[in-house]
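Try this one yourself first.
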């Protein structure tokens, strides 16, 4: 499966568009992370537990998007984007979306 943020795939043409595919997940902070984050607010620096949490959330959203494209029989997902939004205080949604397509070789 080819996944790209571009609108096309070099060496290929888009033979058909199968539709928008997406994957999302909602993740919440926890007390342990909040305590560590409050200490970082005092001394500064990266809050690695939150970085890890958001990295895992992006991976999950990405995998769900790709799986949806596979179910449609896609060869690629083009124009992929990520979006983050706050759902409630302390919880965020990560959304990955793009266009599932069938490819053909360029002539």
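Now uncover the answer:
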């Amino acid at each position: 499966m080819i996944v790209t943020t571009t609108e096309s795939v070099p060496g290929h043409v888009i033979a058909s568009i199968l539709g928008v595919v997406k994957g999302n997940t909602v993740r919440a902070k926890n007390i342990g992370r909040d305590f560590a984050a409050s200490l970082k607010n005092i001394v500064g620096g990266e809050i690695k537990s939150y970085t890890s949490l958001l990295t895992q959330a992006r991976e999950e959203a990405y995998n769900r998007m790709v799986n949806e494209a596979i179910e449609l029989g896609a060869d690629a997902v083009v124009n992929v984007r990520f979006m983050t939004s706050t759902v409630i205080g302390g919880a965020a949604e990560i959304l990955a979306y793009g266009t599932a397509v069938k490819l053909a070789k360029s002539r």
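Discussion: The chain has a mean pLDDT of 88. Helices lie at 31-43, 48-72.
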